[in-house]
Amino acid sequence: xxxxxxxxxxxxxxxxSSGAGGQNVNKVSSKVVLSFDLLNSQSFNDDEKILLxxxxxxKVTSDGIIILNCDEDRSQLKNKEIVTKRFxxxxxxxxxxxKERKPxxxxxxxxxxxxxxxxIASEIKQNRKRPDV
Length: 133
Known about the structure:
The protein is an alpha+beta fold. Helices cover 46% and strands 14% of the residues. Strands 1-2-3 form a 3-stranded antiparallel beta sheet, covered by helices on one side.
C-alpha cells in the first residue's frame, strides 16, 4: 500500500462545524470533509477495490466514493491530519485478508477420556442402589 500515492488522490473540503462554539463556529470553517473516489483510484488494483468496497460497504456511497468527516478540533489543519490518519487506518484494516479457519477434529484421547469418565460415573451410581435380596 503506497500511502503517498493514496494521499495524493484524496480531496478535502472545509466546512463550518455544527453545534455549540459561539462566534468561532459561525466564522471559521474548521470541519474537514475527506472524499476518496475508490472506483477511479490508481492506487489499488481491481481485486483490492472489490475487497475494499465489500468491507467498507457502510462508508462507500453508491458512486463508489468514501466520505469521512472530522470536526474534533478547532484547527482545520489538525482536523485534516486526524481524518487522513483515520482514513489510512480504515483502508489498512480493510485490506487485511483473514486466515481461513481449518476445522479440527476432537482428538481420540479426549473422546476416550470422556467415555471412561461416563463409565466411572455410571458405576458409582450403580453402587448407590440397594442390593437385590
